[in-house]
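Researcher: I'm preparing a figure for a lab meeting and need a structural model of a single chain. I don't have an experimental structure, so a prediction will have to do for now. The sequence is pasted below. Please return the structure as C-alpha cells so I can convert it later.
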Amino acid sequence: MSEIEPSVDPQNCRNMTEVRAGVDAVDRALVELLVRRFGYMDAAARIKTERSAVRDEARKAQVLANVKAAAAASAIPVDIVEQLWDQLVEASIAYEFQHWDNIRK
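Model: Understood. Here is the structure written out cell by cell.
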C-alpha cells in the first residue's frame, strides 16, 4: 500500500490544476485503502461460520461512532462523514454476504 502521492498541500494550491492533482492523488490512495478494507471483508466472510454473523449492528454502531469522533477531532463535517461511512459499511456488509455465500457454494 502506498502513501498519498506528493502534491501541493491544499492550503498552498495556487490554481485548479494543483487542486485537481491533489484530489486525484487522494482518490487513488482512497481506492488502495478500500482494496485493503474489502480484503478484511473477505477475511471476515472466511472466518465467520454463520451467515447470520455477517450483519453485526453493534459493530456497525461502533464503527460509525469511531469515525464520527475522528471527524470531530479533525474538524471536518461529522454528518457528512457519518453518511459516507454508513454507505461504506452497508456496501461492505453486502459484499461480505456475497463473498460468504460464494465461498460456501
